[in-house]
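In the previous chapter we treated chains in isolation. Here, by contrast, the input contains two separate entities that must be folded as one system, with a combined length of 438 residues.
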Amino acid sequence: MEIKVCGPGCASCEKAQKTVEAAVAAKGLKTDVIKVTDFQEIAKLGIFTTPAVVIDGKIVCVGRVPKQSEVEKWIG
Amino acid sequence: MEPIQPSGCGCAKPVTGQAAEEKTHLTRLWISGAMILIIWYAVYRQLEPFSSFLAYSVFGIKRGSHLGDAVQFFAYDTPKVMMLLTLIVFVVGMIRSFFTQDRTRRYLAGKRETAGNVMAATLGIVTPFCSCSAVPLFIGFVQAGVPLGVTFSFLIAAPMVNEIALVLLYGLLGWKVAAIYLGSGLLIAMIAGWIIGRLKLEGWIEDWVQELRAGEAMVVEEKLNWRDRVDRGREAVLDIVGKVWIYVIAGIGVGALIHGYVPQDFMASIMGKQAWWSVPAAVLVGIPMYSNAAGIVPVVEALLGKGAALGTVLAFMMSVIALSLPEMIILRKVLKPQLIAVFVFVVGSGIIFTGYLFNLII
């Protein structure tokens, strides 16, 4: 499974990253959470609102910090 | 708290039982909401007498003394501002669950200039926005074919007409000042965006943005019910109030010192109507200052109380929140320096004009 968190590195993006990492740990997965901070790369994914979470190429959340319970549902 | 349901879940649900349950839940939601509002209002009404009681009776500070005034100001404004802030942020958090940036972009993509400028400035108020999301938002607008001037109307209005500042101005200074702030902020955003559009500055967008073959905008549409929207409001309160309370208290602290110790009409000489240079000076001083809207309003209140002119103070406040150095540095990634300079110049002129205008008519 490939999990990406997109965001230039503002407070909300950091929070999104931590939430996703916590969810991955809670589910006992060994996947790395990839941080995408480059604007160009983010735009190429079709994301224009950050923070956003991409799982296996599918965008599951844009423009807000997800809750850990939501992320667990997406990856579980 | 219920987890938010992802969109488009096609699974069949046992409808009847759940719908009824949903309805009772909704009723309960409205009733508890109304009760909280009543309690909120009752407490709010008692804040002023309580602050006097605290400062003059409990602490025994002499009424009318510098310290007494400062302490009373602080004891009144802190809970007042925090209560207003919590209420506003909650309501705005709920409203914002209706307006996402994706929806705004799709909506503006079909608009021409002029009407587009008006719509963009208005949507700038209710669409969630933070300066760090300015760059992806800008790229998204450009890619979707939103005209540059319309994009700027949005980018100017979003931080400048701040709902927190708006309601704090209403709470602390009355509806007239709040209306003036709202009206002039929207107008500056519309006109400045329109001018930037007329200047045809598309060439001053960084080349990589124009050459970028961005992916199709991916949109996650969520179906939210009222319970989810209340949740969004609650999250907004935890997030925003949790972040800005320290600015608010610092702002009220500065306000309290000004209120208690700065002599009456002292500000009239440097920020009054007679000092013609004070409006541009206030704008210049405001650019490098970066404060949260919630922190700047108590300072504004105190300055006005000491004889500063309304236009000058509003110009200062708008400059602090709309022309922020950090945002310009972020926008530099997508805009060439010339375009940033035009942006600062046009918006700055608009703010200065507003400042003079209100000093003249009020």
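Chain B is about 75% helix and 0% strand. Residues 47-214+224-361 of chain B form one domain. Compare these points with the single-chain example from earlier in the chapter.
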